[in-house]
């Protein structure tokens, strides 16, 4: 593989990551730790983000859910059962679904930290990160 091909492939992945609410570093580290391809994980996160748009109220319905909005991204700390009920992981399946959940939780932790919000993520709490449209912010 030439350097030109690598640069092009990397650029393509970066573009897709920028269209999702995830930092490139989070996606790359999660993919490496999970043993999945960065491009495949990026595609899975894009699919999930599109499916989750408009479901903010579903995630906010549980009294133990907390959220912050940072840079057009909303991060939720939700109980595991809410992830299972709301997030359509069947659209991505297998190892990618597990990696996607990990990426969501990692990104949510970073966004909560950047907002200086103290939220504890334990074994029963997972993160969900969704891009926020202007109309959703006004509601």
Question: Can you count the helices?
Answer: 7
Number of individual domains: 1
Q: What is the CA–CA distance across the termini?
A: 49 Å
SSE class: alpha+beta
Pfam families: DUF8048
InterPro entries: DUF8048
Protein name: DUF8048 domain-containing protein
Task: Please give a structural write-up.
The protein is α+β, with helices and mostly antiparallel strands and about 140 residues long. The protein has one domain (about 5-139). The chain is about 60% helix and about 15% strand. The chain is built from seven helices and three strands. It has helices spanning about 5-20, 25-35, 40-50, 55-60, 80-85, 95-115, 135-139, and strands at about 65-70, 75-80, 125-130. A three-stranded antiparallel beta sheet has the order 1-2-3. Helix 2 runs antiparallel to helix 6 and helix 3 packs across helix 6 (about 95-115).
Any descriptors?
14% strand, 58% helix, 7 helices, disordered N terminus, alpha+beta, 139 residues, single chain, three-stranded antiparallel sheet
């Amino acid at each position: 593989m030439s350097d030109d091909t690598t640069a092009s492939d990397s650029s393509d992945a970066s573009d897709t990551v920028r269209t999702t609410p995830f930092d490139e570093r989070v996606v790359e580290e999660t993919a490496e730790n999970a043993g999945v391809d960065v491009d495949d994980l990026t595609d899975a996160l894009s699919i999930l983000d599109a499916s989750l748009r408009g479901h903010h109220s579903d995630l906010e319905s549980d009294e133990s859910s907390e959220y912050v909005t940072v840079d057009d991204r909303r991060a939720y700390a939700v109980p595991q059962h809410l992830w299972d009920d709301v997030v359509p992981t069947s659209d991505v399946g297998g190892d990618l679904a597990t990696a996607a959940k990990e990426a969501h939780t990692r990104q949510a932790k970073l966004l909560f930290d950047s907002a200086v919000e103290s939220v504890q993520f334990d074994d029963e709490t997972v993160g969900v990160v969704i891009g926020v449209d202007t109309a959703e912010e006004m509601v």
